[in-house]
Amino acid sequence: MLGMAMNSAKLFFQGKLFQDNSRMMGKLALGAGLGAIVIVIAGQFLPVWAAALVGGAVSGLAQPVLFKDLKYV
Question: Which long-range contacts (CB under 8 A, 24 or more apart) does 12-17 make?
Fold first, then answer.
């Protein structure tokens, strides 16, 4: 299992894991940006720990939706 993770990490850093790296990075940035926006907005109304929890949950729930059609090489 560790070998599989190491091989995937090696392919990722070589840029050979996904068919379209720029599309994957764009979706990753979109999910992270969505989480950051939610944290900033929620931080206006909630304590910092609660805003971080809500933002992390939103970002984490968005990733499977964003990556549902991601193609590997």
Answer: 16/73, 17/72, 17/73
